[in-house]
Amino acid sequence: MLNLSKATIRTDLSKLGILNYIDAKPKVGYFVGKRGTPNREEKFRLLQMKVGDLHGVPVIVRETTTIQEAVVALFLENVSNLIVTDEDGDLAGVASRKDLLKVTLGNPNAATIPVSLVMTRQANVVTVSPEDTVLEAARKIIARQIDSLPVVVPSDSDKPGEHWKVVGRITKTNIIKMLLDMVAED
């Protein structure tokens, strides 16, 4: 089918066999080896891992924080966005690098503007709970093309509407580090 002789591909097949990507048996032929298929237990563990097991510490600012203070916090914490909360500590929104950059370029009054005027409001913020799977969080991050998600739990607030307490944040970096740690275990 490939128009190659056995001698031509035998060295390649032997290398793949040595690395356990394929295996061979007489009268059966070649088939996928141990390294060629993911371990079912590993795959199951990955599918069951919860956001609460992985999330990091959130970088939070209040709605009344000025743009200048928010930019300083963004760079000091080396994050791509800031989680904004109201006076009760409930999620109010998220301010990204782009949000802050748009308002600061060519605006001499930006230093005094509150971050609440440029943030993405809570109704438009994608969140996850500690009980969601890491796989679901990764899907949301990829679908929305964002760098991180706030991890929230329902607030005990008596105010009408949905209110969320921020307990963490999960980032692309958290997820990639977890995958690298799983590979390193092998």
Automatic annotation (TrEMBL):
GO terms for molecular function: IMP dehydrogenase activity. Residues 54-112, 119-185 form the CBS domain. It is an enzyme of class 1 (oxidoreductase). Its EC number is 1.1.1.205. The keyword Oxidoreductase applies. Keywords: Oxidoreductase, Repeat. InterPro entries: CBS_dom, CBS_dom_sf, CBS_domain-containing. It comes from the Bacteria. SUPFAM superfamilies: CBS-domain pair. Pfam families: CBS. CDD domains: CBS_pair_CcpN. The keyword Disulfide bond does not apply. PANTHER family: CBS DOMAIN-CONTAINING PROTEIN CBSX2, CHLOROPLASTIC (PTHR48108), TRANSCRIPTIONAL REPRESSOR CCPN (PTHR48108:SF32). This is Inosine-5'-monophosphate dehydrogenase IMP dehydrogenase IMPDH IMPD.
